[in-house]
């Protein structure tokens, strides 16, 4: 799947559906440690840099907070630890080819026409939800998901039926299938244009009612007429191309479309007013957004040519439907052809639907066999890929980070999360963490270092141990803002080989007290620094003390008088209580004065053991940290 692409963008997802990454180094599920329960451990092989999740749950006690056992929803851990397939709810009809792709790797529950209440009931047992335009994915749905829902797949283009803000807040990724139905929608637009101009639907109904009304259904010609395409995106440009083939003069309005794209199709981009006032036909192809809502209203129709004709295969909500009825009644608008409605389905007695000058279809723009198969495959690949931690080019609510950047930054992702986690555990409670500075030492030019992913991981590392928030790339900035956490980044140029993107990363927390005074720099910030060595994150500095500790397992930081025998004394205390030491590193500022010992331990020492360490006369301060 898309994982092998080197150019597609990527986003970090909610928790993965499997417990381990494959040996394929392109499989990116190691990134999911960014979203799994906070204490998931990683084992790694320096050779191939493949990382494997080895343990699912544990508790963390940090920064004087109570123990927090954090998962993303009740049943996620069960899914992870048992290796069971994820569950994907498909709430609207999806092409068979897509369903079969989904069934290869998931339990697929096709439940169509669910009431909003039933959708909310079902969603808490689903890892992904696939919808078309008929399902409203509201905030209530994300709330009811109880943290388990990781991906919403929109089998189509328009995502106005998904509450994107809520999805982002809940760290749920939204992907869509933006390309497979473009041609179908454009063809439907052209079909409506021609059918409207020649009264095909009305004449058909009349004949079936036993009439032969040749004079009544005289139409208008298309050739030589001006068509204004409103929204020159994928569908709009395909409509323009086809309309030109019919001999129409095509203009377009789109504030965001590049002029050269329009020029390439032979279309002139004009202002909104110019488009409206010069067109004989207006075809709508913009998304429904707060800006485009009811953009066609009494005022707009007043500016149009008398007898203008309107086609809408975009979204009903871009038209004020009452205003359109008034314009049709007055003759300002001669005809309309509508595939989409503010409310779908519209009420049976809708004046618009019943209007004799209006041709309607029930949101059929994307409904060709070909488009439905294409959309189904496109969304199935996106959703399954997303659940597996692969690349997705169609993420709607996550910052896009190019695949090659992800793969290069992979070891730094671990480092930043661990530095964040360590730094926050050095804070003595009380004032709250508000201001964090991250300093990257790099030999690369500023434009050659994309740190969005690393910033998200630092946010995660800092926030997760001290709150019940779950953080991933989708919601990192939102959560940081919500918690009032300011993260500033600085890049310091160093003269090293630019082969490696980053030489070292320093995390500083300002305006806080520390439970380990030696971690405080002169200016008063808690400061720790790390590097990636042979693919493994290392702690290299605590305050102004240099250390060298591989960031695995748990860590005891201990400041003592720099004198012989200290390593032995502390080591003995741990050994006597069966706590296995996996490394020790000592750093000092001035010989025989003070030193810092970083001790990696496999087990968490009990309170009694920690007390004993504190009682060693030369030990001035110490802290136990979970990574
Ligand atoms: N009827 C159907 O079944 C059907 C099928 C496919 C798409 N659609 C709808 O068609 C619309 C277009 O789809 P697309 O795939 O071409 O999307 P797109 O994103 O490729 O194109 C939308 C274009 O609208 C432009 N736009 C945004 N705001 C605008 C504004 N205020 N004024 C003018 N232009 C504006 C954008 O710049 C963009 O170029 C969407 O609303 C989509 O949901 C409907
Ligand atoms: O936005 C879209 O892709 C179209 O409106 C199609 O919607 P549908 O999948 O509900 O047909």
Describe the structure.
The chain is elongated and about 110 Å long. Helix 6 crosses helix 8. The strands form 7 sheets. A 7-stranded parallel beta sheet has the order 11-10-9-12-13-14-15, with helices on both faces. A 6-stranded mixed beta sheet has the order 19-18-20-22-23-24, with helices on one face. The chain has a 5-stranded parallel beta sheet with strand order 5-4-6-7-8. The chain has 19 helices and 28 strands. Helix 4 (139-144) links the parallel strand 6 and strand 7. Helix content is 30%, strand content 23%. The protein is α/β, with parallel strands linked by helices and 627 residues long. Nicotinamide-adenine-dinucleotide binds at residues 157-158, 178, 181-182, 185, 230-236, 253-257, 285-288, 291-292, 313-315, 339-340, 363, 365-366.
Structure described in brief:
With 627 residues, the protein is α/β, with parallel strands linked by helices.
- Shape descriptor: elongated
Count of DSSP-assigned helices: 19
Biggest sheet, spatial arrangement of strands: 11-10-9-12-13-14-15
N-to-C span: 33 Å
Q: What's the gyration radius in Å? A: 30 Å
What do the pLDDT scores average to?
A: 84
Total beta strands: 28
Query: Biggest β-sheet, characterized?
Result: 7 strands, parallel
- Give every kind of bound small molecule, once each: nicotinamide-adenine-dinucleotide, 3-phosphoglyceric acid
- The share of residues in helices is 25-40%
**What fraction of the residues are assigned to beta strands by DSSP?**
15-25%
Give start-end ranges of low-pLDDT stretches.
Answer: 1-71, 73-82
Which class best fits the helix and strand makeup? alpha/beta
Oligomer: single chain
Enzyme class: oxidoreductase
EC number: 1.1.1.95
GO cellular component, one term: chloroplast stroma
Catalytic activity: (2R)-3-phosphoglycerate + NAD(+) = 3-phosphooxypyruvate + NADH + H(+)
